[in-house]
Each structure stands twice: as C-alpha cells, then as structure tokens.
Amino acid sequence: MYFDVASTAPLHPVARQALTAALDEGWADPARLYRSGRQARMLLDAARETVADVLGARADEIAFTASGTQAVQLGLLGGLAGNRRRGGHLVHSAVEHSSVLHVAERREADGAEVSVAPVDGAGRVDPEAFGALLRPDTALAALQSANHEVGTVQPVGEVAALCAAVGVPLLVDAAQSAGRTDVPAGWSLLTASAHKWGGPAGVGILAVRKGVRYVSPLPADEREGGRVPGYVNVPAIVAAAASLRAVRAESERENARLHALVERIRTRVPQLVPEVEVVGDPVRRLPHIVTFSCLYVDGEVLLTELDRAGFAVSSGSSCTSSTLTPSHVLAAMGVLTEGNVRVSLPYGTAEADVERFLAVLPELIAGVRAPLGLDLPAPASVSAPEAPSEVSGRVTPRAGGSAGAESDEGQATDAGGSAGAKSVGAGSERPEVSGQVTPRAGGSAGAESDEGQATDAGGSAGAKSVGAGSERPEVSGQVTVIDALGKRCPLPVIELAKRIGEVPVGGTVAVLADDEAARLDIPAWCGMRGQEYTGEAPAADYGGDRGSAYLVVRRS
User: Fold this and answer.
1) For residue range 474-489, what is the model confidence (pLDDT) as tens digits?
2) Fewest beta carbons less than 10 Å away: which of 81, 286, 299, 534?
3) What pLDDT shows up at residue 319?
4) What are the C-alpha distances in Å from 326 to residues 362, 519, 522?
5) What DSSP letter does each residue of 12-73 carry, written as one string?
C-alpha cells in the first residue's frame, strides 16, 4: 500500500489520458504561428485557464515552472526584488518547506534580515505573533497553506489580512492543499506542484496577482510572462491541468472519506501501541495526513519493517535523513522526533487497507522494541476508544534548537542496549546538580571506579556512588550520569528509560549525548513519562569530552 502522497502522488488516470493525447497533439512550439504550433498554444492556453479557475486566479496571473520548488524560489526572489525599495526583510514561519528555508539562508548570507515566526505544539502559527514580525522594511512574507509533514492547516486568511494592512505581499505555498481544499484568500503570490495532486512531475505553478510588484531574479525571457525562462512542457502541463480539475471535482467526497480514515488512525494508534505521540492539529488539518512518533524506535528500522509488510510511508526522524538531523518541523513544534511515521493517504484508499495497517503496526513496533528489554505499559483497551491527547509531552523548543550534529561512531550496545551510568558524589561546581562527577578518561562510554571500569555480563558499565551534598538545595541526593556519547537517537532516550528506575524519586540524571536529536527527544520523553526536564549543561561538567548533558529529575 502506497501511503506517501504527501511526497508524491501516483499519476492520476485522467493525467495519464491527457498526457498521452497531448504528446500527439501538443508537441510543437506554442510560440510558433504554423498549424501545429497554434494547436500546442491552444492546449497551453486551455490548461492555463483550467488551473486559474481551480486556484481562483486570472489566467494571465499563472506561470508554469519546472517544479514546485522552483516556483517557491522564483516567487520569493521575484517578490523580494520587486519590493526592494521597501527593504530586504523577509518573514516566514518555522515550519515552511525547505525551498523557503534555503532562500532565507541565502538571503541571510548576503546580509539581509530574516525573521522566523514560531509555531505551537500543533505546528500552527499565531497570526498575531506573525504580524508582530512585520516591519516597515519587510519586503515579503511567506506562509504555507498547510504543513507537509503533520498536515496542520495554517491561518492564512488572518495572516494575509495583517500583511495587507501594512502593505506586505504574502506568498502562500499551497503545494499540499491545491486540488484538495479551497485556496485560502488574501494571497499575493501562490505556488503549487502538480505531482502532489496526481499530475506529472516537472510541473509547478507560480501565480502572481495583478498589481503585485514582481521582478524576475533571472535573465529576461519572452515565455511565461517573463517570469520563468525556457521552453514549456505542453503535454505535461495539459496533464497537470486535467488532473487538477479532476481531483478538485472529487475532493469533497474523497476528503470526507479520507478524513474518517485518518481519524481512525489518529485514535487507534495510541490505543494499540504504547508510548506513542500523535502530532499535528487534531481539528485544523488536511484530511489525508497523520503523523505519530514512537518512543524507543529507530525510524529507519520501522520504515524498513513497514516496507517489508507492504506499506510505503515517510518519516521525519533523523535516522532516516541524509543529514542525520531531525525534521525542522518536528523540532519547531517541540515534539518527539524518534520513531516518526507520516502516513498520507491517496485518493481511493480502501478502509480494508487502513485496517491492515493498524493490524500489522503494533506487532512491528513491538518487534523493533523487543531487544531493548524495556518494561513498557500495556496499550489501552481498543473496546473503549478515547481521543488521544494531541499535546501531551510537548516542550518549548530551545532557541536555535534545530537539529545539527551527527555521529560517525557505531551504535553498538550491550545485549540490553544500555550505555554506562554512574552515580557520583559531593561538591559540584554547577548549581544544576548535586554531587561531584569524576571526569571520564578519554571520553569512553561507561563508569569509572577506584578499581577501574567494570562491566556486567551484558556489557553495561558499572555505576559508582560517591559522597553527597549540593549547591542547589532543591536537587538533593546523587547525580546518575548516563554516557550515551557516540550513540545516535533513540539510543540516549532508551538508556534513560532503562536507568531512570535506579534513581530515587527527586534524584537527578545527566544524560551525556552528542546527537543533537537528544535535545528534542529527551524533553519530549520527560513530558510523556511524567519526569522533569531541568535543562542542558556542557557534558564536560559531568565528565564528558564532547556534547551536552541533559538533566532529568525523577518525579515518578
């Protein structure tokens, strides 16, 4: 079962038919005056009219690009260039598509200012907070219609009104919603991507409202109103327009059906699988996307197991990324990133397919977790369904807490998957901790004692308790240090879960980790498990030679 249309949708049957016909009828240059050229131009004009009608635009406001990413980048750069007399300031949300983020990075590198609007735990921007970032020198603002990872629908209309009140044009990235839902009102520039709705890949849409200042960032070209240079792919554009009209015509019926199927997944996954967080807005969301994260699960392993079981899904976990960093969307939301699964259902998904997914998922996750030896709570009874809490376990992300570093070292653990832990004694120089930490020798995993490091039969390092005393009276007792340096998430969280029971209530655990995903996942774990996350300190203060120490107080 293909459950990843948020990445790309299968070619719609109408698109296939239109593409085949247009290959015969629309192959010529639409800029030429001979018969075959005029015929291609008629097809191109008809496709432009169709797209404009569905998107609520004028035909002469529509330009076709080579991709949705190109449409976003041309829209941003052209909008900024057109308003350069106003200034160079750009505002966007923290959960925009990477095409927006990369333009923003380039702008900052060139000396321009960029402001980022935060989102709440459901991934939604606060319109007032977004509006507060607008300045007299703001040249352009950007906000997606709905998020591509968690499905949360953004308050575009409210933000657009605030932008219009101060004369700032708003670019709306409608890649995930175009063809599925009504286009939000108030946009100045709009972008979309055909392969998201079942059109062929290689066709993007850039719409620029009449009266909006726009200067192409590329050398002049006579095609596509001077906004997009190069020869247009008429057959692909015709197929894109035909499929857009088809999916919009069937969207009302299909959206209601898919919404019910997604709601079933949102409700039943937390009932069937322990230690799961469903993320994204439970109400203001796209009908076909649901995302959840599973504690103590490697996302890459889980996706591989689901693929073996016949399900193609996506993930925002760092272990499934080529950069080894967790999703910037999940990071901005402050939610659990490990074991992340995004399910996005295509039109025509059968109820039986969703039921089969729900049937195999618990067993697959249990199989992934089995070698860890964790004592997990039993799932709730399926016979008494309750709506899952959408915001449990959320934390406010750290400033600048986007994920970063990776480790090239191995992830080997003992038979139980644990890393070394140590409890140490008195006289700490840091107010966050009680007890003094004996420095680690050479940064190796494990604990040290006066006799040297010892390991048990399972290979986990021994622990040592030394002394007492603290400069911070509210944290009493000992500090247990868990050395997870060189281990990628979810291993630091797994080690924390295995060792927290050894710590007395009120005691502190310092988890040493150099995988930046731990900065997100350890606080999220604390929220889900009723423990207290008290902050971050340099790992060197707890005997580490790199990375950070994440401090947890046991409360239950």
Assistant:
1) 333 479 999 999 998 8
2) 81
3) 56
4) 23, 10, 13
5) PHHHHHHHHHHHHHS-S-TT--SHHHHHHHHHHHHHHHHHHHHHT--GGGEEEES-HHHHHH
Residue 140 and residue 169 in contact, taking contact as beta carbons nearer than 8 Å? yes
Of 461, 426, 465, 425, the C-alpha closest to 446 is 461
Give mean pLDDT, residues 292-303: 92
Q: Which residues contact 90 (CB under 8 A, 6 or more apart)?
A: 76, 80, 103, 104, 107, 112, 113, 114, 115, 138, 139, 140, 141, 142
pLDDT computed for residue 453 by the predictor: 34
Tokens of 486: 């060189």
- Over residues 273-289, mean pLDDT: 96
Q: With a cut of 60, say whether residue 461 has pLDDT above it.
A: no
Q: What secondary structure, in 3-state letters, does 271-338 show? A: HHCCCEEEECCCCCECCCEEEEEECCCCHHHHHHHHHHCCCECECCCHHHCCCCCCCHHHHHHCCCCC
- How far is residue 550's CA from residue 44's CA, in Å, rounded to a whole number? 58
Which DSSP string do the residues of 115-166 spell out, in sequence order? EEE-B-TTS-B-HHHHHHT--TTEEEEEEESB-TTT-BBP-HHHHHHHHHHT
The type of residue at 298 is D
Question: The tokens 């006289």 sit on which residue?
Answer: 427
DSSP 509: E
Active site residues: 319
The pLDDT assigned to 437 comes to 38
Which structure tokens are listed for 81?
A: 């260039």
- The answer to whether the bond into 127 is cis (omega within 30° of 0) is no
Predicted TM-score (pTM) of the model is 0.80
Asked whether residue 7 carries a pLDDT value surpassing 60, the answer given is: yes
Question: What separation in angstroms does the CA of 318 have from each of 304, 326, 353, 518?
Answer: 15, 4, 28, 11
Phi-psi region at 298: left, alpha or beta (left = phi > 0; alpha = psi -120 to 50): beta
3-state secondary structure of 436: strand
The whole-number pLDDT of residue 221 equals 86
Burial zone of 308 (CB within 10 Å; 0-12 exposed, 13-18 middle, 19+ buried): exposed
Give 347 or 220, the one with higher predicted confidence. Answer: 347
